[in-house]
Amino acid sequence: MEKISNDADTLEMLDARYLMHPFTDARANLQGGSMVIDRGEGIFVYDSSGKKYLEAVAGLWSVGLGFSERRLIDAAVRQMEKLPYYHTFTKKSHAPQIELAARLIEMAPVPMSKAFFTNSGSEANDTAIKMIWYRSNAMGEEKRKKIISRKRGYHGITIAAASLTGISVDHQSFDLPLPGFLHVTAPHYYREGQEGESEDAFSTRLVNEIEALILAEGPETVAAFFAEPVMGAGGVIVPPDGYWEKLQPILKKYGIILVADEVICGFGRTGCMFGSQTFGIEPDMMILSKQLSSSYLPISAILMNDMVFEPIADESHAIGAFAHGFTNGGNPTAAAVAIEVLNIMEERDLMAHIKDVSIHFQARLRALGMSSTLVGEARGVGLIGALELVTDKVARSSAWPVGQLAGYAFNLLENKGVIARVMGDTLAFSPPLIITREQVDMIFDRVEQVLVQVENEIRSGKFQ
Ligand SMILES: Cc1ncc(COP(=O)(O)O)c(C=O)c1O
């Protein structure tokens, strides 16, 4: 294995032979395997041939503190030496999970009562759904089980979380979504706004659509509304003016639980500690993961307020137990790493750094919206942003099949040593939160070069 891991071609060959990858064309991977990443340093990663890349999406929007934070490694080692594993089933507990729960409840933007730990965003969303159904039964509202989420929302891939997700490829051939999962229009003004409609009027229309759906289904059957403060994997969609302000009273009116999926937005991504703060959202439940541990170890959390917790507590008392949990939920080593992430964020005043560097990040992103004929919309907030590519800015369309333009730009960018994310014809950026202004320039200087190259190739007929 020593010899093999020094040989990039061989590793790729072994990858093709032995691995089936998530979100990858399994047939195509048989031809040559995937890019093998060997090591990380700060906001950079190196592939197995030694080529250096600026990781402009922080892995999967998740490695907030970069790829070589010594303190996180030391925190994991310290905890592993003391107690590498213990569970929290059947009235057992351990200090890292208790401390992390207390810290998260303390930092929550609205009063929260309890934390429950899981291992991934998908598990956390599945758990939240089960809690919500359990609560409805506890309250004698057995019909209140339907869940509303948004088209283009991403909430994960387990059976219930994938049902929440509003992206068709995540349902196709999986026989999903499950019944009772309802999807409403994505709050994307650029794509969904009507001619002459103001952003505020667009928000009113979407909220009216949601209320009409609730009334058509029967308010007594609708249990919860799940949403990301900023939609990530659906294309970095920042909600329009007035959306959350108008929506929340409607949910309250019908007794519908609001769940903020902060898996991407949490821990600084949108310029506040939580996306809920950036957009004035007051959730009853919050879903946290990814930057919670800077993704060094798997961990996720559900926070819930008393309105959610109290009926669940009663029901579990009547039954004898809340019969749900994962062997590794809140693993002490993962929890110790998450605590250290919070320590680092506090000690280094990372929020001040994010506020400062994101001004430059957003300015560079939006400048491309003005300067490039290929950018239909430049959008984002804090340290998350996207460029939606078109060839006709007025018609907001591309002359090529969906994905061809951005896919080509994405490959050119990768050749230049920048890893972005491509979703349809949208290029997304969500770099580690420790990125500097100079490193922001490294990303957008190269993006600019790539867009100019693609413009030239379109003009000369080379890009077909
Ligand atoms: C908003 C959101 N929720 C949930 C998930 C699912 O998380 P995981 O991949 O850890 O299951 C993701 C993953 O990208 C996400 O972006």
UniProtKB/TrEMBL annotation:
GO molecular function, one term: adenosylmethionine-8-amino-7-oxononanoate transaminase activity
SUPFAM superfamilies: PLP-dependent transferases (SSF53383)
Signal sequence coordinates: none
Cofactor: pyridoxal 5'-phosphate
One Pfam family it belongs to: Aminotran_3
Gene3D superfamilies reported in the protein's UniProt record: Aspartate Aminotransferase, domain 1, Type I PLP-dependent aspartate aminotransferase-like (Major domain)
Keyword line: Aminotransferase, Pyridoxal phosphate, Transferase
InterPro entries, alphabetized: Aminotrans_3, Aminotrans_3_PPA_site, PyrdxlP-dep_Trfase, PyrdxlP-dep_Trfase_major, PyrdxlP-dep_Trfase_small
Similarity annotation: Belongs to the class-III pyridoxal-phosphate-dependent aminotransferase family.
Name used for this protein in its record: Aspartate aminotransferase family protein
Source species of the chain: Gluconobacter kanchanaburiensis NBRC 103587
